[in-house]
Amino acid sequence: PISHVITSGFFKNSLYADISRGEQNTATASEPYNQNLSANSRSYFIRNSDNLDKKYKVSAAAYLVGDLDTGEIIIEKNKDAVYPLASVSKLMTALVTENLTNGKDVASVSKKALSTYGKNGNFKLKEKIKVSDLLFPLLLESSNDAAEIIAEYFGRNSFLKNMNSVAENIGMTKTFFEDPSGLSPDNKSSVSDMFRLAQYIKEKNPDIFNITTKRSYSTGKHNWFSNNQFLREDGYAGGKSGYTDLALQTVISTFSIPTSNSQKRNLGITLLRSKDRFKDVENIVKYLEKDVFYGNQSDISAEWVKENGNIADTYEQNFVDLYFAGDIMLDRGVKNSVNKNLKGDYSALFEKLGTLKKSDIAFANLEGPASDTGKDMHNLYSFRMDPSVLPALKGAGFSVLSVANNHEGDWGRIAFEDTMSNMKENEIAYTGGGQDKNEAETPTIVEKYGMKIGFLGFSDVGPNWLNASEKESGILLASDPYFDEIIQRAGKQVDFLIVSFHFGDEYKKKHNLRQEYLAHKAIDDGAKIIIGSHPHVIEDTEIYKGGFIAYSLGNLIFDQGFSEGTMEGMLLKVRLERNGNMSVKKDILKLGKSFLPDKLIEGKEEKIKF
User: Fold this and answer.
1) H or E stretch including 445?
2) Can you point out the beta strands (E) in 28-132?
3) Which of 428, 435, 441 is nearest to 396 (CA)?
4) Element housing 239 (H / E)
5) How far apart are CA 394 and CA 404, in angstroms?
6) How distant, in Å, are the alpha carbons of 43, 432, 456, 573 from that of 363?
7) Which of 107, 139, 352, 470 has the lowest CB atom count within 10 Å?
8) What is the pTM of this model?
Protein backbone atom coordinates (compact mmCIF):
# COMPACT_ATOMS: atom_id res chain seq x y z
CA PRO A 1 0.00 0.00 0.00
CA ILE A 2 1.05 3.59 -0.65
CA SER A 3 1.56 5.70 2.46
CA HIS A 4 -0.06 9.15 2.06
CA VAL A 5 2.17 11.53 3.99
CA ILE A 6 3.08 15.14 3.45
CA THR A 7 6.53 15.87 4.74
CA SER A 8 9.66 17.83 4.17
CA GLY A 9 11.95 14.99 5.21
CA PHE A 10 13.13 11.69 3.81
CA PHE A 11 10.98 8.58 3.53
CA LYS A 12 13.01 5.68 4.84
CA ASN A 13 10.63 2.81 5.50
CA SER A 14 9.10 2.05 2.13
CA LEU A 15 10.14 1.47 -1.44
CA TYR A 16 8.46 4.69 -2.42
CA ALA A 17 6.34 7.24 -0.65
CA ASP A 18 3.78 9.88 -1.56
CA ILE A 19 3.72 13.58 -0.85
CA SER A 20 0.08 14.64 -1.01
CA ARG A 21 -0.79 18.19 -1.87
CA GLY A 22 -2.30 19.99 1.11
CA GLU A 23 -4.09 23.18 0.18
CA GLN A 24 -1.92 25.42 2.36
CA ASN A 25 1.06 23.05 2.65
CA THR A 26 1.34 23.68 6.40
CA ALA A 27 2.10 20.16 7.60
CA THR A 28 5.55 19.47 9.02
CA ALA A 29 7.80 16.46 8.80
CA SER A 30 6.28 14.91 11.90
CA GLU A 31 2.66 15.54 10.97
CA PRO A 32 0.87 12.79 9.06
CA TYR A 33 -1.47 13.99 6.38
CA ASN A 34 -4.67 12.18 7.32
CA GLN A 35 -6.83 13.02 4.36
CA ASN A 36 -7.84 9.93 2.39
CA LEU A 37 -6.79 10.64 -1.14
CA SER A 38 -8.82 9.55 -4.12
CA ALA A 39 -7.17 7.69 -6.95
CA ASN A 40 -7.27 10.93 -8.98
CA SER A 41 -5.37 13.05 -6.45
CA ARG A 42 -2.11 14.16 -8.00
CA SER A 43 0.94 13.78 -5.81
CA TYR A 44 4.68 13.28 -5.73
CA PHE A 45 5.85 9.69 -5.32
CA ILE A 46 9.40 9.10 -4.20
CA ARG A 47 11.49 5.97 -4.51
CA ASN A 48 14.85 5.30 -2.82
CA SER A 49 14.52 8.48 -0.81
CA ASP A 50 17.67 7.97 1.27
CA ASN A 51 19.90 7.66 -1.79
CA LEU A 52 20.27 11.38 -2.41
CA ASP A 53 22.95 11.75 0.24
CA LYS A 54 24.25 8.20 0.23
CA LYS A 55 24.60 7.56 -3.49
CA TYR A 56 24.22 10.89 -5.24
CA LYS A 57 26.81 12.53 -3.02
CA VAL A 58 25.16 15.90 -2.45
CA SER A 59 27.75 17.95 -0.58
CA ALA A 60 25.57 20.86 0.61
CA ALA A 61 25.02 21.23 4.34
CA ALA A 62 21.40 22.17 3.61
CA TYR A 63 19.19 21.73 0.57
CA LEU A 64 15.55 21.79 -0.41
CA VAL A 65 13.59 20.83 -3.51
CA GLY A 66 10.02 21.96 -3.88
CA ASP A 67 7.24 22.53 -6.38
CA LEU A 68 7.18 26.25 -7.19
CA ASP A 69 3.51 26.16 -8.21
CA THR A 70 2.05 24.24 -5.28
CA GLY A 71 4.59 24.89 -2.53
CA GLU A 72 5.06 21.18 -1.86
CA ILE A 73 8.45 20.27 -0.41
CA ILE A 74 9.68 17.12 -2.11
CA ILE A 75 13.00 16.54 -0.37
CA GLU A 76 15.06 18.53 2.11
CA LYS A 77 17.97 18.43 4.49
CA ASN A 78 18.36 20.93 7.33
CA LYS A 79 15.69 23.13 5.79
CA ASP A 80 15.61 25.60 8.70
CA ALA A 81 19.35 25.75 9.42
CA VAL A 82 20.71 29.28 8.99
CA TYR A 83 23.90 29.93 7.02
CA PRO A 84 25.50 32.88 5.18
CA LEU A 85 23.70 33.57 1.91
CA ALA A 86 26.45 35.23 -0.17
CA SER A 87 25.45 36.67 -3.57
CA VAL A 88 22.09 34.92 -3.68
CA SER A 89 21.20 38.04 -1.68
CA LYS A 90 21.17 39.91 -4.98
CA LEU A 91 17.84 38.32 -5.89
CA MET A 92 16.27 40.28 -3.04
CA THR A 93 18.22 43.37 -4.15
CA ALA A 94 16.72 42.96 -7.62
CA LEU A 95 13.23 42.36 -6.22
CA VAL A 96 13.28 45.52 -4.09
CA THR A 97 14.77 47.50 -6.98
CA GLU A 98 11.97 46.47 -9.31
CA ASN A 99 9.42 47.50 -6.69
CA LEU A 100 11.04 50.92 -6.17
CA THR A 101 12.12 52.05 -9.61
CA ASN A 102 9.89 53.70 -12.17
CA GLY A 103 12.08 52.64 -15.08
CA LYS A 104 13.41 56.16 -15.60
CA ASP A 105 15.66 56.42 -12.53
CA VAL A 106 19.29 57.21 -13.29
CA ALA A 107 22.03 56.58 -10.73
CA SER A 108 25.51 58.07 -10.50
CA VAL A 109 28.49 55.86 -9.71
CA SER A 110 30.16 57.01 -6.50
CA LYS A 111 33.67 56.50 -5.24
CA LYS A 112 32.27 54.63 -2.24
CA ALA A 113 30.38 52.18 -4.43
CA LEU A 114 33.50 51.56 -6.53
CA SER A 115 35.49 50.82 -3.38
CA THR A 116 33.35 47.71 -2.79
CA TYR A 117 35.22 44.44 -3.20
CA GLY A 118 35.19 43.21 -6.78
CA LYS A 119 35.18 44.90 -10.19
CA ASN A 120 32.47 43.07 -12.13
CA GLY A 121 30.28 45.58 -13.93
CA ASN A 122 33.28 47.63 -15.07
CA PHE A 123 31.84 50.97 -13.94
CA LYS A 124 33.57 54.34 -14.07
CA LEU A 125 33.50 57.03 -11.41
CA LYS A 126 30.58 59.49 -11.79
CA GLU A 127 29.12 57.76 -14.83
CA LYS A 128 25.36 57.85 -15.14
CA ILE A 129 23.44 54.66 -15.64
CA LYS A 130 19.78 53.65 -15.57
CA VAL A 131 18.80 51.78 -12.43
CA SER A 132 16.87 49.27 -14.53
CA ASP A 133 20.05 48.53 -16.50
CA LEU A 134 21.95 47.88 -13.28
CA LEU A 135 19.89 44.74 -12.77
CA PHE A 136 21.85 43.07 -15.56
CA PRO A 137 25.39 43.33 -14.12
CA LEU A 138 23.84 42.64 -10.70
CA LEU A 139 22.37 39.31 -11.82
CA LEU A 140 24.56 38.26 -14.77
CA GLU A 141 28.02 39.08 -13.41
CA SER A 142 27.04 39.27 -9.73
CA SER A 143 28.45 42.79 -9.55
CA ASN A 144 28.87 43.98 -5.96
CA ASP A 145 29.40 47.51 -7.26
CA ALA A 146 25.99 47.42 -8.99
CA ALA A 147 24.35 46.35 -5.73
CA GLU A 148 25.88 49.28 -3.87
CA ILE A 149 25.08 51.79 -6.64
CA ILE A 150 21.44 50.75 -6.50
CA ALA A 151 21.28 50.87 -2.70
CA GLU A 152 22.92 54.29 -2.59
CA TYR A 153 20.48 55.68 -5.14
CA PHE A 154 17.47 54.80 -3.02
CA GLY A 155 19.23 55.57 0.27
CA ARG A 156 21.29 52.66 1.57
CA ASN A 157 19.72 52.37 5.04
CA SER A 158 16.23 52.69 3.64
CA PHE A 159 16.98 50.16 0.92
CA LEU A 160 18.21 47.59 3.44
CA LYS A 161 15.10 48.14 5.56
CA ASN A 162 13.08 47.41 2.44
CA MET A 163 15.02 44.19 1.81
CA ASN A 164 14.35 42.94 5.32
CA SER A 165 10.74 44.12 5.26
CA VAL A 166 10.02 42.28 2.02
CA ALA A 167 11.67 39.15 3.44
CA GLU A 168 9.43 39.37 6.50
CA ASN A 169 6.30 39.90 4.40
CA ILE A 170 7.12 36.89 2.21
CA GLY A 171 7.53 34.75 5.32
CA MET A 172 11.31 34.48 5.27
CA THR A 173 11.49 34.36 9.06
CA LYS A 174 15.08 33.15 9.25
CA THR A 175 16.55 35.67 6.80
CA PHE A 176 18.44 38.90 7.44
CA PHE A 177 20.26 41.27 5.09
CA GLU A 178 23.16 43.43 6.26
CA ASP A 179 24.19 44.61 2.80
CA PRO A 180 22.77 44.52 -0.75
CA SER A 181 25.54 42.36 -2.24
CA GLY A 182 25.95 39.35 0.03
CA LEU A 183 29.54 40.12 0.95
CA SER A 184 28.58 40.44 4.61
CA PRO A 185 28.63 37.19 6.60
CA ASP A 186 25.55 38.57 8.38
CA ASN A 187 23.45 38.11 5.25
CA LYS A 188 21.89 34.84 6.34
CA SER A 189 19.02 32.59 5.37
CA SER A 190 17.73 29.04 5.30
CA VAL A 191 16.96 26.88 2.27
CA SER A 192 13.26 26.96 3.15
CA ASP A 193 13.30 30.77 3.13
CA MET A 194 15.20 30.75 -0.15
CA PHE A 195 12.52 28.53 -1.64
CA ARG A 196 9.85 31.01 -0.54
CA LEU A 197 11.81 33.76 -2.29
CA ALA A 198 12.02 31.69 -5.47
CA GLN A 199 8.27 31.10 -5.37
CA TYR A 200 7.54 34.78 -4.88
CA ILE A 201 9.82 35.91 -7.73
CA LYS A 202 8.36 33.34 -10.10
CA GLU A 203 4.83 34.47 -9.36
CA LYS A 204 5.21 38.23 -8.85
CA ASN A 205 8.42 39.30 -10.63
CA PRO A 206 9.31 36.66 -13.25
CA ASP A 207 11.43 39.18 -15.20
CA ILE A 208 14.11 38.74 -12.55
CA PHE A 209 14.55 35.05 -13.37
CA ASN A 210 14.29 35.87 -17.07
CA ILE A 211 17.33 38.16 -16.74
CA THR A 212 19.34 35.34 -15.16
CA THR A 213 18.76 33.11 -18.19
CA LYS A 214 20.39 35.61 -20.56
CA ARG A 215 23.90 34.94 -21.81
CA SER A 216 24.75 38.65 -22.07
CA TYR A 217 23.33 42.15 -22.17
CA SER A 218 24.57 45.32 -23.82
CA THR A 219 23.69 48.98 -23.32
CA GLY A 220 26.01 50.12 -26.09
CA LYS A 221 28.40 51.51 -23.49
CA HIS A 222 28.60 48.35 -21.40
CA ASN A 223 28.64 44.66 -22.24
CA TRP A 224 27.86 42.32 -19.36
CA PHE A 225 28.26 38.54 -19.55
CA SER A 226 26.71 35.81 -17.46
CA ASN A 227 28.93 33.72 -15.21
CA ASN A 228 25.99 31.38 -14.57
CA GLN A 229 27.07 27.74 -14.51
CA PHE A 230 23.56 26.49 -15.29
CA LEU A 231 22.96 28.24 -18.61
CA ARG A 232 22.32 25.74 -21.41
CA GLU A 233 21.29 23.08 -18.87
CA ASP A 234 18.10 21.36 -19.96
CA GLY A 235 15.06 22.85 -18.30
CA TYR A 236 16.90 25.66 -16.52
CA ALA A 237 14.52 28.55 -15.80
CA GLY A 238 16.65 30.99 -13.81
CA GLY A 239 18.30 31.57 -10.47
CA LYS A 240 21.32 33.03 -8.72
CA SER A 241 24.44 31.63 -7.11
CA GLY A 242 26.91 32.99 -4.60
CA TYR A 243 30.24 32.32 -2.95
CA THR A 244 32.33 33.58 -0.07
CA ASP A 245 34.97 31.74 1.90
CA LEU A 246 32.59 31.53 4.86
CA ALA A 247 29.38 30.76 2.98
CA LEU A 248 30.98 28.34 0.51
CA GLN A 249 28.76 27.90 -2.56
CA THR A 250 25.08 28.85 -2.43
CA VAL A 251 22.33 28.78 -5.03
CA ILE A 252 18.69 29.25 -5.89
CA SER A 253 17.99 27.44 -9.16
CA THR A 254 14.71 26.77 -10.90
CA PHE A 255 14.01 24.06 -13.44
CA SER A 256 11.21 22.62 -15.51
CA ILE A 257 11.79 18.91 -14.90
CA PRO A 258 9.92 15.84 -16.19
CA THR A 259 8.62 13.92 -13.20
CA SER A 260 6.34 11.62 -15.16
CA ASN A 261 6.12 10.28 -18.68
CA SER A 262 4.03 13.19 -19.89
CA GLN A 263 4.42 16.16 -17.61
CA LYS A 264 7.08 18.64 -16.50
CA ARG A 265 6.89 20.42 -13.17
CA ASN A 266 8.37 23.78 -12.14
CA LEU A 267 10.75 22.96 -9.31
CA GLY A 268 13.04 25.05 -7.15
CA ILE A 269 16.36 23.77 -5.81
CA THR A 270 18.06 25.71 -3.03
CA LEU A 271 21.47 24.97 -1.49
CA LEU A 272 23.58 26.41 1.30
CA ARG A 273 27.22 25.62 2.13
CA SER A 274 27.81 23.46 -0.90
CA LYS A 275 31.29 22.39 -1.88
CA ASP A 276 30.23 21.97 -5.51
CA ARG A 277 26.84 23.49 -6.30
CA PHE A 278 26.91 22.57 -9.99
CA LYS A 279 27.37 18.87 -9.31
CA ASP A 280 25.00 19.00 -6.34
CA VAL A 281 22.22 20.47 -8.48
CA GLU A 282 23.05 18.15 -11.37
CA ASN A 283 22.84 15.12 -9.10
CA ILE A 284 19.58 16.32 -7.54
CA VAL A 285 18.09 16.76 -11.01
CA LYS A 286 19.18 13.22 -11.92
CA TYR A 287 17.54 11.97 -8.76
CA LEU A 288 14.31 13.84 -9.55
CA GLU A 289 14.21 12.46 -13.08
CA LYS A 290 14.81 8.87 -11.99
CA ASP A 291 13.26 8.51 -8.56
CA VAL A 292 10.45 11.06 -8.33
CA PHE A 293 7.08 10.69 -10.06
CA TYR A 294 4.24 13.20 -10.22
CA GLY A 295 0.76 11.91 -10.90
CA ASN A 296 -2.12 10.11 -9.25
CA GLN A 297 -2.10 6.78 -7.50
CA SER A 298 -3.45 4.89 -10.44
CA ASP A 299 -0.54 6.16 -12.56
CA ILE A 300 2.01 4.43 -10.36
CA SER A 301 2.63 1.17 -12.13
CA ALA A 302 4.68 -1.82 -11.21
CA GLU A 303 6.65 -1.17 -14.39
CA TRP A 304 7.76 2.27 -13.14
CA VAL A 305 8.82 0.87 -9.78
CA LYS A 306 10.70 -2.01 -11.34
CA GLU A 307 12.15 -0.17 -14.30
CA ASN A 308 14.29 2.32 -12.41
CA GLY A 309 14.23 0.90 -8.94
CA ASN A 310 17.96 0.35 -8.63
CA ILE A 311 19.33 3.17 -10.75
CA ALA A 312 20.20 5.39 -7.81
CA ASP A 313 21.86 2.49 -6.04
CA THR A 314 24.42 2.22 -8.84
CA TYR A 315 25.26 5.92 -8.96
CA GLU A 316 28.68 5.73 -7.34
CA GLN A 317 31.14 7.64 -9.52
CA ASN A 318 34.70 6.40 -9.39
CA PHE A 319 36.18 8.73 -11.98
CA VAL A 320 36.63 12.40 -12.75
CA ASP A 321 36.20 13.85 -16.24
CA LEU A 322 38.63 16.64 -17.08
CA TYR A 323 38.87 18.84 -20.17
CA PHE A 324 42.13 20.54 -21.04
CA ALA A 325 42.38 23.34 -23.59
CA GLY A 326 45.28 25.37 -24.92
CA ASP A 327 46.01 29.08 -25.06
CA ILE A 328 43.20 31.61 -24.62
CA MET A 329 43.97 35.17 -25.76
CA LEU A 330 40.98 37.48 -26.13
CA ASP A 331 42.75 40.75 -26.96
CA ARG A 332 43.98 42.29 -30.21
CA GLY A 333 42.43 40.60 -33.25
CA VAL A 334 40.06 38.46 -31.20
CA LYS A 335 38.75 41.54 -29.39
CA ASN A 336 38.26 43.36 -32.69
CA SER A 337 36.44 40.35 -34.13
CA VAL A 338 34.16 40.03 -31.09
CA ASN A 339 33.26 43.72 -31.32
CA LYS A 340 32.66 43.53 -35.06
CA ASN A 341 30.99 40.15 -35.45
CA LEU A 342 29.49 39.41 -32.03
CA LYS A 343 28.51 42.91 -30.87
CA GLY A 344 31.04 42.73 -28.06
CA ASP A 345 29.64 39.48 -26.67
CA TYR A 346 32.61 37.40 -25.51
CA SER A 347 30.31 34.68 -24.24
CA ALA A 348 29.29 33.95 -27.84
CA LEU A 349 32.85 32.71 -28.45
CA PHE A 350 32.02 29.58 -26.48
CA GLU A 351 28.65 28.83 -28.05
CA LYS A 352 30.02 25.69 -29.73
CA LEU A 353 31.99 24.59 -26.68
CA GLY A 354 29.13 23.39 -24.51
CA THR A 355 31.08 20.19 -23.93
CA LEU A 356 33.25 22.07 -21.41
CA LYS A 357 30.33 22.37 -19.00
CA LYS A 358 29.84 18.62 -19.07
CA SER A 359 33.24 18.05 -17.48
CA ASP A 360 33.99 17.93 -13.79
CA ILE A 361 36.96 20.27 -14.27
CA ALA A 362 37.87 22.40 -17.30
CA PHE A 363 41.39 23.85 -17.52
CA ALA A 364 43.23 26.17 -19.92
CA ASN A 365 46.06 28.71 -20.11
CA LEU A 366 45.03 32.38 -19.94
CA GLU A 367 47.58 34.08 -22.17
CA GLY A 368 47.87 37.46 -20.48
CA PRO A 369 46.19 39.58 -17.80
CA ALA A 370 42.45 40.20 -17.61
CA SER A 371 42.53 43.69 -16.15
CA ASP A 372 41.89 47.35 -16.85
CA THR A 373 44.83 48.52 -14.74
CA GLY A 374 48.61 48.54 -15.05
CA LYS A 375 51.19 50.01 -17.39
CA ASP A 376 52.13 48.66 -20.79
CA MET A 377 55.57 47.10 -20.48
CA HIS A 378 56.00 47.44 -24.26
CA ASN A 379 56.92 43.86 -24.96
CA LEU A 380 57.07 42.80 -28.60
CA TYR A 381 53.40 41.87 -28.18
CA SER A 382 51.54 43.18 -25.14
CA PHE A 383 48.22 41.55 -24.31
CA ARG A 384 45.61 42.82 -21.86
CA MET A 385 42.11 41.40 -21.92
CA ASP A 386 38.95 43.12 -20.77
CA PRO A 387 38.09 41.94 -17.22
CA SER A 388 34.61 41.12 -18.49
CA VAL A 389 36.04 38.10 -20.32
CA LEU A 390 36.21 36.32 -16.96
CA PRO A 391 32.45 36.05 -16.37
CA ALA A 392 32.23 34.75 -19.94
CA LEU A 393 34.94 32.16 -19.23
CA LYS A 394 33.22 31.10 -16.03
CA GLY A 395 29.91 30.80 -17.85
CA ALA A 396 31.63 28.69 -20.51
CA GLY A 397 32.60 26.17 -17.85
CA PHE A 398 36.25 26.91 -17.02
CA SER A 399 37.09 26.16 -13.41
CA VAL A 400 40.92 26.47 -13.34
CA LEU A 401 43.21 28.68 -15.45
CA SER A 402 47.00 28.88 -15.50
CA VAL A 403 48.63 32.30 -15.14
CA ALA A 404 52.18 30.97 -15.60
CA ASN A 405 53.06 32.26 -19.06
CA ASN A 406 55.24 34.81 -20.81
CA HIS A 407 52.44 37.34 -21.33
CA GLU A 408 51.09 37.49 -17.79
CA GLY A 409 53.35 40.45 -16.99
CA ASP A 410 52.62 42.45 -20.15
CA TRP A 411 50.96 45.23 -18.14
CA GLY A 412 53.03 44.92 -14.99
CA ARG A 413 52.62 43.39 -11.58
CA ILE A 414 49.57 45.54 -10.76
CA ALA A 415 47.61 44.11 -13.69
CA PHE A 416 48.77 40.60 -12.76
CA GLU A 417 47.50 40.98 -9.19
CA ASP A 418 44.28 42.51 -10.46
CA THR A 419 43.78 39.51 -12.75
CA MET A 420 44.01 37.09 -9.83
CA SER A 421 41.54 39.20 -7.86
CA ASN A 422 39.14 39.31 -10.81
CA MET A 423 39.38 35.53 -11.24
CA LYS A 424 38.59 34.96 -7.59
CA GLU A 425 35.55 37.24 -7.87
CA ASN A 426 34.25 35.06 -10.69
CA GLU A 427 35.00 31.80 -8.86
CA ILE A 428 37.70 30.76 -11.32
CA ALA A 429 40.66 29.15 -9.60
CA TYR A 430 44.16 30.00 -10.83
CA THR A 431 47.43 28.15 -10.67
CA GLY A 432 51.01 28.96 -11.60
CA GLY A 433 51.14 32.19 -9.61
CA GLY A 434 50.05 33.90 -6.45
CA GLN A 435 50.18 36.92 -4.20
CA ASP A 436 53.48 35.56 -2.90
CA LYS A 437 55.74 32.56 -3.39
CA ASN A 438 53.90 30.45 -0.84
CA GLU A 439 50.58 30.82 -2.67
CA ALA A 440 52.22 30.23 -6.04
CA GLU A 441 53.77 26.98 -4.80
CA THR A 442 50.57 25.75 -3.15
CA PRO A 443 48.60 23.46 -5.45
CA THR A 444 45.11 24.51 -6.44
CA ILE A 445 42.98 21.61 -5.23
CA VAL A 446 39.59 20.65 -6.63
CA GLU A 447 37.81 17.79 -4.87
CA LYS A 448 35.41 15.66 -6.90
CA TYR A 449 33.71 12.45 -5.72
CA GLY A 450 36.14 12.13 -2.85
CA MET A 451 39.17 12.51 -5.13
CA LYS A 452 41.51 15.46 -4.67
CA ILE A 453 42.83 16.79 -7.99
CA GLY A 454 45.73 19.23 -7.67
CA PHE A 455 47.08 21.77 -10.18
CA LEU A 456 50.49 23.43 -10.44
CA GLY A 457 51.73 25.68 -13.23
CA PHE A 458 55.24 26.70 -14.36
CA SER A 459 56.54 28.99 -17.08
CA ASP A 460 59.79 28.11 -18.81
CA VAL A 461 59.73 31.22 -21.01
CA GLY A 462 59.53 33.95 -18.37
CA PRO A 463 59.04 36.71 -17.65
CA ASN A 464 61.81 36.18 -15.10
CA TRP A 465 61.19 39.54 -13.42
CA LEU A 466 57.70 38.34 -12.44
CA ASN A 467 59.09 35.44 -10.42
CA ALA A 468 57.10 35.08 -7.19
CA SER A 469 59.01 35.83 -4.01
CA GLU A 470 58.32 35.84 -0.28
CA LYS A 471 57.32 39.51 -0.44
CA GLU A 472 56.05 39.97 -4.00
CA SER A 473 53.42 38.43 -6.18
CA GLY A 474 54.43 36.55 -9.30
CA ILE A 475 54.49 33.31 -11.22
CA LEU A 476 56.33 30.02 -10.81
CA LEU A 477 59.30 29.50 -13.10
CA ALA A 478 60.47 26.09 -14.28
CA SER A 479 64.02 27.23 -13.44
CA ASP A 480 63.13 27.49 -9.76
CA PRO A 481 65.90 25.80 -7.75
CA TYR A 482 63.23 24.11 -5.62
CA PHE A 483 61.36 22.73 -8.64
CA ASP A 484 61.48 19.11 -7.42
CA GLU A 485 60.49 19.96 -3.86
CA ILE A 486 57.55 22.08 -4.99
CA ILE A 487 56.08 19.23 -7.04
CA GLN A 488 56.85 16.55 -4.47
CA ARG A 489 55.24 18.60 -1.71
CA ALA A 490 52.17 19.27 -3.84
CA GLY A 491 51.84 15.61 -4.77
CA LYS A 492 51.57 14.63 -1.12
CA GLN A 493 48.53 16.88 -0.67
CA VAL A 494 46.39 15.37 -3.42
CA ASP A 495 45.38 12.07 -4.97
CA PHE A 496 46.35 13.15 -8.49
CA LEU A 497 48.59 16.05 -9.46
CA ILE A 498 48.39 17.88 -12.80
CA VAL A 499 51.31 20.10 -13.79
CA SER A 500 51.04 22.59 -16.63
CA PHE A 501 54.08 24.03 -18.39
CA HIS A 502 54.36 27.03 -20.66
CA PHE A 503 57.36 25.74 -22.60
CA GLY A 504 58.78 24.68 -25.95
CA ASP A 505 59.41 26.33 -29.31
CA GLU A 506 56.70 28.34 -30.98
CA TYR A 507 55.10 26.77 -34.08
CA LYS A 508 57.03 23.47 -33.74
CA LYS A 509 54.85 20.36 -33.91
CA LYS A 510 57.37 18.13 -32.13
CA HIS A 511 58.45 18.65 -28.54
CA ASN A 512 62.09 19.43 -27.77
CA LEU A 513 64.51 17.90 -25.28
CA ARG A 514 63.93 20.64 -22.69
CA GLN A 515 60.18 19.95 -22.68
CA GLU A 516 60.81 16.23 -22.33
CA TYR A 517 63.26 16.80 -19.48
CA LEU A 518 60.82 18.95 -17.49
CA ALA A 519 57.80 16.74 -18.16
CA HIS A 520 59.61 13.55 -17.19
CA LYS A 521 61.08 15.21 -14.12
CA ALA A 522 57.63 16.36 -12.99
CA ILE A 523 56.22 12.84 -13.33
CA ASP A 524 59.22 11.44 -11.48
CA ASP A 525 58.38 13.91 -8.71
CA GLY A 526 54.77 12.74 -8.46
CA ALA A 527 52.71 14.35 -11.25
CA LYS A 528 50.10 12.25 -13.07
CA ILE A 529 49.26 14.47 -16.06
CA ILE A 530 51.40 17.07 -17.84
CA ILE A 531 49.71 19.76 -19.94
CA GLY A 532 51.79 22.00 -22.22
CA SER A 533 51.17 25.34 -23.89
CA HIS A 534 53.12 28.11 -25.70
CA PRO A 535 54.01 26.59 -29.12
CA HIS A 536 50.55 27.68 -30.46
CA VAL A 537 50.31 24.43 -32.43
CA ILE A 538 49.40 20.91 -31.39
CA GLU A 539 52.37 18.77 -30.44
CA ASP A 540 52.75 15.06 -29.70
CA THR A 541 51.68 13.18 -26.59
CA GLU A 542 53.53 10.56 -24.56
CA ILE A 543 52.97 7.95 -21.86
CA TYR A 544 55.78 7.93 -19.31
CA LYS A 545 56.06 5.95 -16.06
CA GLY A 546 52.37 5.89 -15.26
CA GLY A 547 51.81 9.46 -16.39
CA PHE A 548 50.35 11.11 -19.50
CA ILE A 549 52.03 14.05 -21.26
CA ALA A 550 50.44 16.42 -23.79
CA TYR A 551 53.37 18.61 -24.85
CA SER A 552 51.22 21.33 -26.43
CA LEU A 553 47.48 21.66 -26.94
CA GLY A 554 47.88 24.57 -29.35
CA ASN A 555 45.42 27.44 -29.38
CA LEU A 556 41.89 27.36 -28.06
CA ILE A 557 41.17 30.94 -29.13
CA PHE A 558 43.93 33.14 -30.58
CA ASP A 559 44.31 35.59 -33.46
CA GLN A 560 47.04 33.78 -35.37
CA GLY A 561 45.46 33.32 -38.78
CA PHE A 562 48.72 32.99 -40.69
CA SER A 563 48.75 29.17 -40.67
CA GLU A 564 46.42 26.21 -40.41
CA GLY A 565 48.28 24.87 -37.39
CA THR A 566 47.75 28.02 -35.33
CA MET A 567 44.05 28.06 -36.15
CA GLU A 568 43.33 24.83 -34.34
CA GLY A 569 43.83 23.31 -30.94
CA MET A 570 43.30 20.08 -29.08
CA LEU A 571 40.48 19.73 -26.59
CA LEU A 572 41.81 16.89 -24.49
CA LYS A 573 39.31 14.91 -22.44
CA VAL A 574 40.80 12.77 -19.69
CA ARG A 575 38.74 10.39 -17.60
CA LEU A 576 40.82 9.80 -14.50
CA GLU A 577 39.77 6.75 -12.52
CA ARG A 578 40.12 6.33 -8.81
CA ASN A 579 42.56 3.44 -9.33
CA GLY A 580 44.88 5.61 -11.42
CA ASN A 581 43.91 4.29 -14.84
CA MET A 582 42.69 6.77 -17.40
CA SER A 583 41.23 7.19 -20.84
CA VAL A 584 41.99 10.07 -23.18
CA LYS A 585 40.03 11.55 -26.08
CA LYS A 586 41.69 14.04 -28.42
CA ASP A 587 39.15 16.33 -30.05
CA ILE A 588 40.37 18.95 -32.52
CA LEU A 589 38.81 22.42 -32.51
CA LYS A 590 39.06 24.46 -35.72
CA LEU A 591 38.87 28.27 -35.63
CA GLY A 592 37.04 30.21 -38.33
CA LYS A 593 38.24 33.27 -40.20
CA SER A 594 37.13 35.58 -37.42
CA PHE A 595 39.01 33.49 -34.82
CA LEU A 596 35.75 32.01 -33.56
CA PRO A 597 35.49 28.31 -32.70
CA ASP A 598 33.94 26.87 -35.83
CA LYS A 599 34.21 23.09 -36.00
CA LEU A 600 34.90 20.32 -33.51
CA ILE A 601 36.35 17.09 -34.86
CA GLU A 602 35.90 14.34 -32.30
CA GLY A 603 38.66 11.85 -31.69
CA LYS A 604 38.52 8.27 -30.47
CA GLU A 605 38.67 7.40 -26.80
CA GLU A 606 41.87 5.56 -25.87
CA LYS A 607 42.07 3.60 -22.64
CA ILE A 608 45.38 3.73 -20.83
CA LYS A 609 46.24 1.23 -18.13
CA PHE A 610 49.39 1.48 -16.09
Assistant:
1) strand 444-448
2) 42-47, 62-67, 73-77, 83-84, 106-108, 128-130
3) 428
4) strand 236-244
5) 19
6) 43, 12, 12, 10
7) 470
8) 0.86
Dump pLDDT digits (tens) for 123-133.
999 999 999 99
The DSSP result for 461-525, as a single string, is S--GGGB--SSS-EE-BTT-TTHHHHHHHHHTTSSEEEEEEE-S-TT-SS--HHHHHHHHHHHHT
> Strand order in 529-533's β-sheet?
444-448, 451-459, 496-502, 529-533, 547-550, 541-544
pLDDT in tens, 150-176: 999 999 999 999 999 999 999 999 999
Coil, helix or strand at residue 34: coil
- Report which residue type is found at 255: F
| d(C-alpha 252, C-alpha 90), whole Å | 11
Q: Could you give the strand order of the β-sheet that contains 264-274, starting from the edge strand earlier in sequence?
A: 73-77, 62-67, 264-274, 248-258, 236-244
CA-to-CA separations, 540 to 167, 255, 568, in angstroms, rounded: 58, 43, 14
Residue 536 CA to residue 477 CA, distance in Å, equals: 20
Q: 586 φ, ψ to 5°?
A: -105, 90
The distance of Cα 88 from the centroid of its chain, to the nearest Å, equals 14
Longest dimension (CA), the chain: 79
